[in-house]
User: What shape does this take?
Amino acid sequence: MKRAEQVTFGGSGLNRAAHIRNDAVALTEARQHPQAACILLWRGKVMVHGDRLDKLSWVTMAHPILKAGYQTAAEEIIFLGFEDDGAPSFALDISGWEPVGQDISTVGGFVDRTEQQHPDCAPGHVFAELRRIMTRLSPRDAELAATAKAVIGWHETHQFCARCGAPSEIVQAGWQRSCDACGAQHFPRTDPVVIMLITHGDSVLMGRSPGWPEGMYSLLAGFVEPGETLEAAVRREVMEEAGVKVGQVDYLSSQPWPFPSSLMFGCAGEALSHEIEIDPIEIEDAIWVTRQDMMRAFAGEHPEILPAREGAIAHFLLENWLADTLD
Ligand SMILES: [Zn+2]
Assistant: This one.
């Protein structure tokens, strides 16, 4: 698929310079570089600014917030890479900060429209939920935000060695955890998920999970299981959830999805059967939607189907299906 990397979080070719993660001298040089700067995360949210909150906020390496000592799971600064002009980029989690007198009632929820302003940062530089602003960021800012959020999220849930249970420590500039007790090394986790555009003639298979807002449908998706190829996962998930047999499967596009640690593999699949039999435990409904109806849904004019959520790979795949640009 020619447009594959134009998906939200599709990447920007960031130079991650993995070779310096374990090089103390090079890392110190990077931290002391006059253009070195750091982005900030707080309870999964990223600090952004601008009229539309469409730019990442950066602080210098001398900013007091970096020395404030907020207690977090990822207390070390994480090296993200070098910008195109050579400036080193870092990320720091300050989740231990307690905002006083600010609305945090929906922080951590699926929809969070609140913004938090740290008193040491310039007015208008606020923590915002990434899903809310992801389509407004430049590809570079989106890659940095997704990377930092995924790595920091991993530290939050992987404080202890998975082999022996002892507390592990951060090494490799944030990209690894090491266990002193048993010597095990642990790496940031990425969970593969297939999401599939299953077509039959001029229709696409859409499903909805229990609890979704009325009218919300999306492409079927599911985790890839150990020992399984992407193609097999697509066929199994569609059979399990909708009872539809799938033949040819092709890879289209991938999307890092740091909520918390997925890598979405967008695939196209050809249905060999039309009849739908849902598994009511997995999904609430599945339907075939014609191209014409999907166009109406995208235009917000369909009486029963809401448009897919912008920024998610489902929206991207459907949009390209409608535009006939899947090749
Ligand atoms: Zn261990």
About this structure: The CA atoms of residues 202 and 290 lie 6 Å apart. The chain is about 20% helix and 25% strand. The radius of gyration is 22 Å. The helical segments are 24-32, 130-133, 139-157, 230-242, 291-298, 313-322.
